[in-house]
Amino acid sequence: MRVAVLGAGAVGARVARQLLVADSVDQLVLRDTSAERLAWAARTIGDRVIIEHHPFPTALDADAVVVTSPRGTQLAAVKEAISTGRPAVLACDGLAETIAILKLDRAARDAGIPVVVGAGFAPGLTCVLVAHGMSWFDEVDEIHIYKMGAGGPACALVHHRALSRFSYDWRDGDWIRRPGGSGRELCWFPEPVGPRDCYRAALADPVLLHHAFPGIDRITSRMAATRRDRLTATMPMLAPAHAEGGSGAVRVELRGRRGTTQETLVLGATERPAVGAAAVVAIATEWVLSGKVAGRGMSGLAEVDDPVGFLGELAKRGLVVEIFEGDGVVV
Amino acid sequence: MRAILRAIRQATAAVSVAAAVVTALRLRGRVTVPRQSGGWRKLNGPDLR
Question: What is the 3-state secondary structure of A73-135?
Answer without folding.
Answer: CHHHHHHHHHHCCCCEEECCCEHHHHHHHHCCHHHHHHHCCEEECCCECCCEHHHHHHHHHHC
